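User: Predict the complex with N-(3-carboxypropanoyl)-L-norvaline.
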Amino acid sequence: MKLFSSVNDVKDVPALVAEALQLKQNPYAHQHLGKNKTLSLVFLNPSLRTRMSTQKAAMNLGMNVIVLNIDKEGWALELRDNVIMNGTTVEHIREAAGVMGEYSDIIGVRSFPGLKDREEDYSETIFNKFVEFCKVPVVSLESATRHPLQSLADLVTIEELKTKARPKVVLTWAPHIKALPQAVPNSFAEWMCRADVDFTITHPAGYELCTDFTKGAAITHNQGEALKDADFVYVKNWSAYEPYGAVTGGNEDWMLTNAKMDTLAPAAKVMHCLPVRRDLELSSEILDGPRSVVIHEAGNRVWAAQAVLKQMLETL
Ligand code: SN0
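Assistant: Here is the predicted structure with N-(3-carboxypropanoyl)-L-norvaline placed in the model:
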Protein backbone atom coordinates (compact mmCIF):
# COMPACT_ATOMS: atom_id res chain seq x y z
CA MET A 1 0.00 0.00 0.00
CA LYS A 2 1.45 3.38 -1.06
CA LEU A 3 -1.41 5.63 0.02
CA PHE A 4 -4.03 5.32 2.77
CA SER A 5 -6.50 8.17 2.36
CA SER A 6 -9.82 6.33 2.06
CA VAL A 7 -11.41 2.89 1.95
CA ASN A 8 -10.83 3.00 -1.81
CA ASP A 9 -7.08 2.58 -1.19
CA VAL A 10 -7.70 -0.81 0.45
CA LYS A 11 -7.69 -3.86 -1.84
CA ASP A 12 -9.27 -6.25 0.64
CA VAL A 13 -11.12 -4.65 3.57
CA PRO A 14 -11.95 -7.91 5.46
CA ALA A 15 -8.28 -8.96 5.16
CA LEU A 16 -7.11 -5.62 6.61
CA VAL A 17 -9.56 -5.97 9.53
CA ALA A 18 -8.36 -9.55 10.12
CA GLU A 19 -4.75 -8.33 10.02
CA ALA A 20 -5.52 -5.68 12.67
CA LEU A 21 -7.10 -8.32 14.93
CA GLN A 22 -4.09 -10.63 14.45
CA LEU A 23 -1.71 -7.81 15.37
CA LYS A 24 -3.75 -7.24 18.51
CA GLN A 25 -3.00 -10.86 19.50
CA ASN A 26 0.66 -10.63 18.56
CA PRO A 27 1.82 -6.98 18.47
CA TYR A 28 5.60 -7.50 18.24
CA ALA A 29 5.82 -10.28 15.63
CA HIS A 30 6.95 -7.96 12.81
CA GLN A 31 9.58 -5.77 14.47
CA HIS A 32 12.06 -6.57 11.68
CA LEU A 33 9.79 -4.84 9.12
CA GLY A 34 10.25 -1.39 10.61
CA LYS A 35 13.94 -1.62 11.54
CA ASN A 36 15.75 1.57 10.46
CA LYS A 37 12.56 2.93 8.92
CA THR A 38 11.21 6.34 9.93
CA LEU A 39 7.59 7.42 10.23
CA SER A 40 6.99 11.16 10.43
CA LEU A 41 3.66 12.34 11.85
CA VAL A 42 2.84 15.88 10.77
CA PHE A 43 -0.03 17.68 12.47
CA LEU A 44 -1.63 20.87 11.22
CA ASN A 45 -4.35 20.43 13.90
CA PRO A 46 -4.65 19.02 17.44
CA SER A 47 -4.61 15.28 18.19
CA LEU A 48 -4.55 12.84 21.10
CA ARG A 49 -5.54 9.35 19.90
CA THR A 50 -4.27 9.60 16.36
CA ARG A 51 -0.88 10.83 17.49
CA MET A 52 -0.38 8.33 20.33
CA SER A 53 -1.91 5.26 18.67
CA THR A 54 -0.06 5.74 15.39
CA GLN A 55 3.23 6.29 17.23
CA LYS A 56 2.58 3.16 19.33
CA ALA A 57 1.70 1.17 16.21
CA ALA A 58 4.95 2.25 14.52
CA MET A 59 7.00 1.38 17.63
CA ASN A 60 5.36 -2.08 17.75
CA LEU A 61 6.64 -2.56 14.17
CA GLY A 62 10.17 -1.50 15.16
CA MET A 63 10.00 1.90 13.41
CA ASN A 64 11.49 5.19 14.53
CA VAL A 65 8.99 8.03 14.82
CA ILE A 66 9.26 11.80 14.41
CA VAL A 67 6.30 13.95 15.42
CA LEU A 68 6.01 17.52 14.16
CA ASN A 69 3.17 19.74 15.34
CA ILE A 70 3.80 22.00 12.39
CA ASP A 71 0.92 24.34 13.25
CA LYS A 72 2.61 25.21 16.55
CA GLU A 73 6.31 24.41 16.13
CA GLY A 74 6.99 24.80 12.41
CA TRP A 75 7.40 27.78 10.12
CA ALA A 76 4.09 29.28 9.02
CA LEU A 77 3.25 27.25 5.91
CA GLU A 78 2.11 28.70 2.60
CA LEU A 79 -0.35 26.30 0.98
CA ARG A 80 -1.35 28.32 -2.11
CA ASP A 81 0.47 28.41 -5.41
CA ASN A 82 1.27 31.56 -7.36
CA VAL A 83 1.44 33.93 -4.40
CA ILE A 84 4.27 36.32 -3.57
CA MET A 85 5.20 35.31 -0.03
CA ASN A 86 5.48 38.81 1.41
CA GLY A 87 2.94 38.20 4.20
CA THR A 88 3.06 36.03 7.32
CA THR A 89 3.79 32.64 5.71
CA VAL A 90 7.47 31.68 5.73
CA GLU A 91 7.80 28.36 3.92
CA HIS A 92 5.89 26.83 1.02
CA ILE A 93 4.36 23.36 1.31
CA ARG A 94 6.36 22.40 -1.81
CA GLU A 95 9.68 22.74 0.01
CA ALA A 96 8.37 21.69 3.44
CA ALA A 97 6.82 18.41 2.21
CA GLY A 98 9.78 17.72 -0.09
CA VAL A 99 12.22 18.06 2.81
CA MET A 100 10.08 15.89 5.12
CA GLY A 101 10.14 13.19 2.44
CA GLU A 102 13.97 13.23 2.60
CA TYR A 103 13.82 12.36 6.31
CA SER A 104 10.97 9.81 6.19
CA ASP A 105 10.04 6.43 4.74
CA ILE A 106 6.33 7.02 5.46
CA ILE A 107 4.56 10.28 6.34
CA GLY A 108 1.27 10.74 8.20
CA VAL A 109 -0.58 14.04 7.74
CA ARG A 110 -3.47 15.64 9.62
CA SER A 111 -5.13 18.51 7.76
CA PHE A 112 -8.63 19.57 8.86
CA PRO A 113 -11.01 21.43 6.55
CA GLY A 114 -11.45 25.20 6.73
CA LEU A 115 -15.26 24.67 6.48
CA LYS A 116 -15.52 27.87 4.41
CA ASP A 117 -14.86 26.78 0.82
CA ARG A 118 -16.49 23.44 0.09
CA GLU A 119 -14.82 22.94 -3.24
CA GLU A 120 -11.37 23.51 -1.76
CA ASP A 121 -12.01 21.17 1.21
CA TYR A 122 -13.61 18.44 -0.89
CA SER A 123 -10.78 18.49 -3.41
CA GLU A 124 -8.38 17.75 -0.50
CA THR A 125 -5.91 20.37 -1.68
CA ILE A 126 -3.64 20.35 1.41
CA PHE A 127 -3.47 16.57 1.80
CA ASN A 128 -2.91 16.06 -1.93
CA LYS A 129 -0.08 18.60 -1.95
CA PHE A 130 1.71 16.66 0.78
CA VAL A 131 1.27 13.47 -1.23
CA GLU A 132 2.53 15.14 -4.39
CA PHE A 133 5.57 16.87 -2.94
CA CYS A 134 6.87 14.48 -0.25
CA LYS A 135 7.26 11.56 -2.72
CA VAL A 136 7.00 8.83 -0.03
CA PRO A 137 3.92 6.80 1.01
CA VAL A 138 1.37 8.87 2.96
CA VAL A 139 -1.19 7.90 5.60
CA SER A 140 -4.11 10.22 6.31
CA LEU A 141 -4.33 11.16 9.99
CA GLU A 142 -7.70 12.86 9.17
CA SER A 143 -7.96 15.04 6.13
CA ALA A 144 -10.60 17.60 5.17
CA THR A 145 -13.19 14.98 4.19
CA ARG A 146 -12.13 11.63 5.70
CA HIS A 147 -10.65 9.93 8.77
CA PRO A 148 -9.85 6.42 7.48
CA LEU A 149 -7.71 5.20 10.42
CA GLN A 150 -10.66 5.98 12.70
CA SER A 151 -13.12 4.16 10.44
CA LEU A 152 -10.88 1.10 10.21
CA ALA A 153 -10.62 1.00 14.02
CA ASP A 154 -14.43 1.36 14.17
CA LEU A 155 -14.92 -1.58 11.81
CA VAL A 156 -12.40 -3.64 13.79
CA THR A 157 -14.37 -2.82 16.96
CA ILE A 158 -17.68 -3.88 15.36
CA GLU A 159 -16.13 -7.12 14.05
CA GLU A 160 -14.78 -7.88 17.51
CA LEU A 161 -17.92 -7.11 19.52
CA LYS A 162 -20.75 -8.17 17.19
CA THR A 163 -23.04 -10.95 18.38
CA LYS A 164 -24.68 -11.66 15.02
CA ALA A 165 -23.32 -12.14 11.50
CA ARG A 166 -24.84 -8.92 10.09
CA PRO A 167 -25.33 -6.37 12.87
CA LYS A 168 -27.49 -3.25 12.58
CA VAL A 169 -25.23 -0.19 12.74
CA VAL A 170 -26.68 3.32 13.16
CA LEU A 171 -24.78 6.57 12.67
CA THR A 172 -26.62 9.29 14.57
CA TRP A 173 -25.96 13.03 14.41
CA ALA A 174 -25.49 14.61 17.87
CA PRO A 175 -25.73 18.21 19.11
CA HIS A 176 -22.66 20.47 19.44
CA ILE A 177 -21.94 24.19 19.78
CA LYS A 178 -19.30 24.41 17.05
CA ALA A 179 -19.09 23.67 13.33
CA LEU A 180 -17.27 20.33 13.12
CA PRO A 181 -15.94 18.61 9.99
CA GLN A 182 -17.89 15.94 8.08
CA ALA A 183 -14.71 13.83 7.87
CA VAL A 184 -15.58 11.28 10.58
CA PRO A 185 -19.20 10.65 9.45
CA ASN A 186 -18.21 10.66 5.74
CA SER A 187 -15.54 8.10 6.38
CA PHE A 188 -17.62 5.97 8.76
CA ALA A 189 -20.45 5.90 6.18
CA GLU A 190 -18.06 5.03 3.37
CA TRP A 191 -16.56 2.12 5.34
CA MET A 192 -19.92 0.83 6.62
CA CYS A 193 -21.34 0.85 3.08
CA ARG A 194 -18.48 -1.50 2.13
CA ALA A 195 -18.86 -3.74 5.22
CA ASP A 196 -21.28 -6.60 5.81
CA VAL A 197 -23.61 -4.62 8.11
CA ASP A 198 -27.17 -3.28 7.99
CA PHE A 199 -26.40 0.46 7.98
CA THR A 200 -28.67 3.43 8.79
CA ILE A 201 -27.82 7.13 9.05
CA THR A 202 -30.04 9.51 11.01
CA HIS A 203 -29.76 13.30 11.35
CA PRO A 204 -32.01 16.35 11.55
CA ALA A 205 -33.14 17.86 8.22
CA GLY A 206 -30.36 20.05 6.85
CA TYR A 207 -27.46 17.79 7.88
CA GLU A 208 -27.47 15.55 4.78
CA LEU A 209 -23.97 14.23 4.08
CA CYS A 210 -22.45 14.33 0.60
CA THR A 211 -24.06 11.39 -1.21
CA ASP A 212 -20.67 10.18 -2.53
CA PHE A 213 -20.11 8.65 0.92
CA THR A 214 -23.57 7.26 1.70
CA LYS A 215 -24.50 5.08 -1.29
CA GLY A 216 -26.28 1.98 0.03
CA ALA A 217 -27.17 3.43 3.45
CA ALA A 218 -30.72 3.89 4.73
CA ILE A 219 -31.15 7.57 5.69
CA THR A 220 -33.89 9.00 7.92
CA HIS A 221 -34.67 12.17 9.90
CA ASN A 222 -36.47 10.04 12.49
CA GLN A 223 -33.89 9.14 15.14
CA GLY A 224 -36.26 6.85 17.06
CA GLU A 225 -37.04 4.81 13.95
CA ALA A 226 -33.34 4.53 13.11
CA LEU A 227 -32.30 3.44 16.61
CA LYS A 228 -34.90 0.64 16.79
CA ASP A 229 -33.13 -2.68 17.50
CA ALA A 230 -29.67 -1.29 16.68
CA ASP A 231 -26.65 -3.38 17.67
CA PHE A 232 -24.18 -0.46 17.41
CA VAL A 233 -24.96 3.25 17.66
CA TYR A 234 -22.22 5.57 16.41
CA VAL A 235 -22.60 9.09 17.79
CA LYS A 236 -21.06 12.10 16.02
CA ASN A 237 -21.77 15.75 15.38
CA TRP A 238 -21.10 17.33 12.00
CA SER A 239 -21.83 20.67 10.39
CA ALA A 240 -23.96 21.00 7.26
CA TYR A 241 -22.67 20.12 3.80
CA GLU A 242 -25.21 22.56 2.33
CA PRO A 243 -24.99 25.46 3.18
CA TYR A 244 -21.43 24.42 3.78
CA GLY A 245 -20.23 24.51 7.41
CA ALA A 246 -23.56 25.80 8.76
CA VAL A 247 -24.83 24.95 12.25
CA THR A 248 -28.47 25.44 13.12
CA GLY A 249 -29.44 25.33 16.79
CA GLY A 250 -32.44 23.67 18.34
CA ASN A 251 -31.67 19.96 18.04
CA GLU A 252 -30.58 19.40 21.66
CA ASP A 253 -33.04 16.48 21.98
CA TRP A 254 -30.84 14.48 19.57
CA MET A 255 -28.45 13.67 22.46
CA LEU A 256 -28.61 9.97 23.41
CA THR A 257 -29.77 9.11 26.92
CA ASN A 258 -30.24 5.80 28.72
CA ALA A 259 -34.03 6.34 28.56
CA LYS A 260 -33.91 6.48 24.74
CA MET A 261 -31.63 3.48 24.53
CA ASP A 262 -33.67 1.43 27.04
CA THR A 263 -36.79 1.88 24.92
CA LEU A 264 -35.37 1.55 21.42
CA ALA A 265 -32.14 -0.44 21.46
CA PRO A 266 -31.48 -1.87 24.93
CA ALA A 267 -28.67 -4.17 23.80
CA ALA A 268 -26.81 -1.68 21.60
CA LYS A 269 -23.18 -0.69 22.13
CA VAL A 270 -22.50 3.04 21.86
CA MET A 271 -19.47 4.26 19.93
CA HIS A 272 -17.82 7.68 19.49
CA CYS A 273 -14.47 8.59 17.94
CA LEU A 274 -13.65 11.03 20.78
CA PRO A 275 -13.04 13.74 21.88
CA VAL A 276 -16.61 13.95 23.16
CA ARG A 277 -18.27 16.85 24.94
CA ARG A 278 -20.14 15.29 27.86
CA ASP A 279 -23.82 16.04 28.23
CA LEU A 280 -23.80 18.09 25.04
CA GLU A 281 -23.00 15.46 22.39
CA LEU A 282 -23.45 12.37 24.53
CA SER A 283 -24.82 11.92 28.05
CA SER A 284 -22.35 11.07 30.80
CA GLU A 285 -24.73 8.32 32.01
CA ILE A 286 -24.09 6.51 28.72
CA LEU A 287 -20.35 7.26 28.66
CA ASP A 288 -19.94 5.99 32.22
CA GLY A 289 -22.28 3.01 31.79
CA PRO A 290 -21.97 -0.49 30.32
CA ARG A 291 -23.24 0.47 26.83
CA SER A 292 -20.25 2.64 26.02
CA VAL A 293 -17.35 1.05 24.15
CA VAL A 294 -15.55 4.34 23.45
CA ILE A 295 -12.35 3.49 25.37
CA HIS A 296 -12.13 0.01 23.82
CA GLU A 297 -12.72 1.60 20.40
CA ALA A 298 -9.90 4.12 20.98
CA GLY A 299 -7.66 1.22 22.05
CA ASN A 300 -8.28 -0.40 18.67
CA ARG A 301 -6.79 2.65 16.94
CA VAL A 302 -3.36 1.06 17.57
CA TRP A 303 -4.21 -2.14 15.66
CA ALA A 304 -5.83 -0.27 12.79
CA ALA A 305 -2.77 1.95 12.36
CA GLN A 306 -0.43 -1.01 12.76
CA ALA A 307 -2.20 -3.02 10.03
CA VAL A 308 -1.94 -0.07 7.62
CA LEU A 309 1.71 0.69 8.44
CA LYS A 310 2.59 -3.01 8.10
CA GLN A 311 1.08 -3.18 4.62
CA MET A 312 2.97 0.00 3.67
CA LEU A 313 6.29 -1.30 5.03
CA GLU A 314 5.79 -4.51 3.04
CA THR A 315 5.68 -2.52 -0.21
CA LEU A 316 8.55 -0.09 0.49
C1 SN0 B 1 -12.64 16.55 15.17
C2 SN0 B 1 -13.73 16.23 14.16
O1 SN0 B 1 -13.39 15.92 12.99
O2 SN0 B 1 -14.90 16.27 14.50
C3 SN0 B 1 -11.73 15.36 15.40
C4 SN0 B 1 -12.39 14.06 15.65
C5 SN0 B 1 -11.44 12.91 15.69
N1 SN0 B 1 -13.24 16.93 16.42
C6 SN0 B 1 -13.18 18.17 16.89
O3 SN0 B 1 -12.62 19.04 16.24
C7 SN0 B 1 -13.82 18.45 18.24
C8 SN0 B 1 -13.66 19.87 18.65
C9 SN0 B 1 -14.53 20.31 19.81
O4 SN0 B 1 -14.41 21.50 20.11
O5 SN0 B 1 -15.30 19.54 20.39
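The mean pLDDT is 98.
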